[in-house]
Specification:
The chain has about 400 residues and is α/β, with parallel strands linked by helices. It has 13 helices and 13 strands. It has 2 domains: about 150 residues, Alpha-Beta Complex (Aspartate Aminotransferase, domain 1); about 230 residues, Aspartate Aminotransferase, domain 2, CATH 3.40.640.10. The strands form 3 sheets. The protein has a 7-stranded mixed sheet, with helices on both faces.
């Protein structure tokens, strides 16, 4: 009998982390690998945030805090939700965790019974379905095609709801596609959800501030206030403020749900890092002009990468209105052969080919639930992106 728990048999390691690790291994072996698989802004954490962390250390803020966040950080989060999203929460409706991922994990463990269903529109962030499985739930994956803008249609949602449906997961702007649900699109989904009071919504808004060309952001609890009690609105400081390693995510939800999430966290990690919490207060309450500046930089990279993709036969890409990823359709290279005679039969094969031949690490669309695509992150310098696409172009040209 295996010592390892059977629950691990139904999940797989994060594809983006796997790609990053493989790229690091190749680099350690002396190979010049460009990693476009990791969703991590290349900007520095803002100076005033860093200074807040240093001050916290010097002031002795290095002890345990309240399990689900300090009062100072919860107050800052309440102000953020009011300022940015027109959402009102009280202290006992806010939870803070070691990243948005921990909030999602805690929520699934706190609410799912074996066999409960969670609707997950695809393409989806790679961890959603596996977190549901760890909570003994059943992911119900709904394909959202490129023709539909990679977004869930209300009639498709309604057809998928059953008496066992407990959650709908929404991510806007989306990882991996950058798709954004408009106010009206969220309103249409909300009209369906209002007919099914047993279904709750997990709104993952982590890319809220990475918007292009004047795109606007809406979150479903604000669009339809009657859903607020049934919605867990999740966000964090990692993407907007380049604080991925600080590990702070947060959410607003009903008192009952927030208490349950805190109970799970209290028996796992306890509080998030006290120093990171102090830094996050400074991020949320400090100057916000850097958000638009950094979004503009991402947009410049996006526009240049779209130009480069258009010059590569067999690849195409919808222009994303948000987030810092490109979800590239690679249907035109499927069925072709490498110089060594091996066929490119899937987007995973194409991903491995780019790593082997071009020394460019990307993530296959299959990991996000919709093929044939590859996802690249543009959260790196334009010079690096130019070099990477030159390598990809040469590798594609070598296919026959």
């Amino acid at each position: 009998m295996s010592f390892i728990a059977p629950r691990l048999n139904v999940i797989k390691p994060s594809a983006s982390i796997t790609v990053a690790n493989r790229a690091a291994e190749l680099r350690a072996a002396g190979q010049d690998v460009i990693n476009l698989g990791t969703g991590e802004p290349d900007f520095a954490t803002p100076d005033h945030v860093v200074e807040a962390a240093i001050s916290a250390i010097r002031n002795g803020e290095t002890r345990y805090t309240i399990v689900d966040g300090t009062k100072a950080l919860k107050a800052a989060i309440i102000e953020k939700f009011r300022r940015d999203n027109q959402l009102t929460f009280s202290m006992d409706e806010i939870t803070v965790g070691a990243g948005a991922k921990q909030i999602i994990y805690n929520a699934m463990l706190a609410t799912l019974a074996p066999g409960d269903e969670v609707i997950v529109p695809a393409p989806y962030w790679v961890s959603y379905t596996d977190i549901v499985l760890l909570g003994e739930g059943v992911p119900v994956v709904l394909q959202c095609t490129q023709q539909d803008g990679f977004k869930l249609r209300p009639e498709v949602l309604e057809q998928a709801i059953t008496p066992r449906t407990k959650w709908l997961m929404l991510n806007s702007p989306s990882n991996p596609t950058g798709a954004i649900y408009s106010h009206d699109e969220l309103k249409a989904l909300a009209e369906v959800l209002l007919r099914y009071p047993h279904v709750h919504v997990m709104s993952d808004d982590i890319y809220e501030h990475v918007l292009y060309e004047g795109a606007s952001f809406s979150t479903i609890a604000a669009v339809e206030p009657r859903l607020k009690e049934r919605t867990l609105t999740i966000n964090g400081v990692s993407k907007a403020y380049a604080m991925t390693g600080w590990r702070i995510g947060f959410a607003g939800g009903s008192k009952e749900l927030i208490k349950a999430i805190s109970t799970v966290q209290g028996q796992s990690t306890s509080n998030p890092c006290s120093i990171s919490q102090a830094a996050s207060v400074a991020a949320l309450l400090g100057p916000q002009d850097l958000l638009a500046e950094r979004a503009a930089a991402f947009q410049h990279r996006r526009d240049r990468c779209i130009e480069l993709i258009r010059d590569i036969p067999g690849l195409s890409c919808e222009v994303p209105p948000g987030a810092f990823y490109l979800y590239i359709n690679c249907a035109g290279v499927i069925g072709k052969s490498r110089l060594d005679g091996r066929a490119i039969a899937s987007d995973e094969d194409f991903t491995m080919y780019l790593l082997d031949d071009a020394k460019v690490a990307v993530v296959q669309g299959a990991a996000y639930g919709l093929s044939p695509y590859i996802r690249i992150s543009i959260a790196t310098s334009l010079e690096t992106l130019e070099c990477a696409f030159a390598r990809i172009a040469a590798a594609v040209a070598n296919l026959s």
